[in-house]
Amino acid sequence: MPELPEVDRARAALERVVGRRIEAVGDHDSFVCRPFAPGEIAAALVGHEIVGVRRTGKQLLVDTTGPVLGLHFGMSGSLRFDVPTDERFTRFWVRFDDGGTMVLRDPRRLGRVVLDPVQRLGEDALLVDGPTFRDLVGRSRAPVKARLLDQAVVAGIGNLLADEALWRARIDPRRRGVDLDRAELVHLYRAVRASVRDAMAAGGSGRSRFGTARKAGVCPRDGVPLASAKVGGRTTRWCPREQR
DNA sequence: AGCATTGTTTCACA
DNA sequence: TTGTGAAACAATGC
What is the pTM of this model? Predict the structure, then answer.
């Protein structure tokens, strides 16, 4: 369930392992750990201590006294602590010197585990300032939703948050960035930040009023059936009456 | 059976 | 050249 709010929750949970030493690593899922060979990540990490945890967008960075461990949850990844490492869907795990474990559970295996990740990400959605956001989003000829989903522009916004923010800002997801005026971009910027913050408070993306309504197919403000189409390659729902 | 899925990368094309 | 969008990736659930 990972968009920025879920990943940030994982970051907070990871704070508990700071200061622990890595005793063993399970890196034998060659798809999730690609392009590293089985044992390669383990060899690089064993014996090192976790010294910090950072997040940019949906990317998690675990600093150690050795390499940086990069974690990405893909579509279905999540972290578990102090559970057995042989459970179904365990794709990667770390055991610490205190006997505790960190397990990456990821049924669909679209998550990634890498050493020293090279990031090509834009500014984090929670940190980007208004003028920068307006400039980056407002200069594109792509549908505004596709622009929001582009992690190289603003990092952390996924499909649900994008729909949520556009609904709050009352903007049609199919409109081109260049066709939005300054006031609309201001609204969108505020809507993005509010959507992210609310999702974090609610414990996840898609738990908002619109997130619930998105499934039901009815706009929670005016009861109009939501429109649905592929925008930016993703299923998109919006209120055809309010979002212009 | 068929289709959709809260993500990212690659590749074809304008 | 730059940007855009569809397909591929893997696996599950409806």
Answer: 0.93
